[in-house]
Prior knowledge:
mainly alpha
Amino acid sequence: MDAAAAIWEVLDLPIVIFLMLNFFLIVASTLVYAERKVSAFIQERSGPNRVGPGGFFQSFADVFKLMFKENIVPAQGNEFIHSLAPVLMVVIAMSTGALIPWARTPSGDPLAIADISVSLLVVLAMTSISVYGVTLAGWSSNSKYSLLGGLRSSAQMISYELAMGAAALSVVLYSGSLSLFDIVESQNHLGSFFGWNIFRNPVGFIIFSVCALAETNRAPFDLPEAEQELVGGYHTEYSGMKFGMFFLAEYVNLWMASLLIATLFMGGYLIPGEVFLIEWLGLGGAFLTVLQVAVFLAKVSFFAFCFIWIRWTLPRFKYNQLMNLGWKYMLPISIANILVIALLVAGYQLLVG
């Protein structure tokens, strides 16, 4: 038994990481299927309905097809950077999920792969690195269309990251911590969903959600890959599984953005009426942990649906509209929101103290 326990101590984290990575792959495939079905519903058509039940295996068939497509690298491009860019996008997108608390364990600890005191800061830092993947893809292809897509992405991500960071800072003011677990628990003080940051900080919620949409390069913020203007943008010169990796990174980033929005503003894994479940019904322990994971997944799935819904509803911005929104509106409003919340928090502390 001691030997088995020692072996499990060594292998438990790698096994959890392996399962988490495969979970993200399945989630990305499911989101692709959901995107096709939701867009088909909006456009009054049936969508994929041939491969598997209801066409569910169409995404897996697409991956299988991409695996056998030829990998083409432009003759005048940089082959190493051309291969590095999609790998960088996928690795960063999947690594972010290790810091998200999925539930509270029966012992009161966060159910997460990595629990660190500055997890929000690390998540924002890692997501900001993803701009390098897009920029390097555009530059290494030695194509004007790809280069313009990479430059657009750099300008767009830098513009909206400032407002996104300011919106996240407004959440930190309420919680007094950079830990995502502490941020979730700080929304539990009223014992109901009215303690969630979406009610305490609605301006921050709107700004963070819009900026998250821009950071994932999805419509109406898909200027880096606008097919009417740039053929395919930064991944014009990509084929086979390299293109598939960009596709994978986009949908993993969509899921990660939904995870962050639910964690920071929708109470994360918190269940409305959780105090009632624990004190009156006695539903604590492992059952409560499983229920929290299920509720968290439901919240995240709702925001992922909203991302898809927005893509097939709103037209693409013009480039000047995109930059004006980020610099002239989002950033000043987010800074003003920080000042207002700081005054509210300081006033509350004076009254209580």
